[in-house]
User: Which sequence fits this backbone?
């Protein structure tokens, strides 16, 4: 559970990964000193890249069809980010509850 708290604090305060952890991952995530943390960091970078691509594609589509009524029903990048954030929090919470249930058995 400490990893969830550490990662949450890092995300909340926009803290970068420590250099020692990044350097330990040069041989691969599995052999690093913090594989779970590096995996979560990689996933967040992938999600940020995907969001950036979605925003870029949305901007390109808006330029092509400004009069289309479907553009009004699309979510803004902020709404998309909030949805992704709440879904990831819900996923983490579910994983934590599963882990606690397994420990209590």
Assistant:
């Amino acid at each position: 559970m400490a990893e969830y708290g550490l990662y949450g604090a890092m995300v909340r305060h926009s803290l970068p990964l420590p250099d020692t952890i990044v350097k330990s991952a040069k041989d691969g995530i599995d052999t690093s000193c913090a594989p779970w943390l590096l995996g979560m960091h990689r996933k967040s970078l992938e999600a940020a890249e995907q969001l950036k691509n979605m925003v870029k594609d949305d901007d390109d589509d808006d330029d092509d069809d400004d009069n289309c009524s479907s553009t009004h029903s699309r979510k803004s990048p902020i709404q998309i980010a909030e949805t992704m954030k709440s879904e990831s929090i819900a996923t983490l919470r579910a994983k934590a509850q599963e882990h606690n249930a397994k420990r209590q058995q």
User: Anything to note?
Assistant: The chain has a mean pLDDT of 75. Residues 2-104 form one domain. The helical segments are 2-12, 19-24, 35-64, 77-104. The longest helix spans residues 35-64.
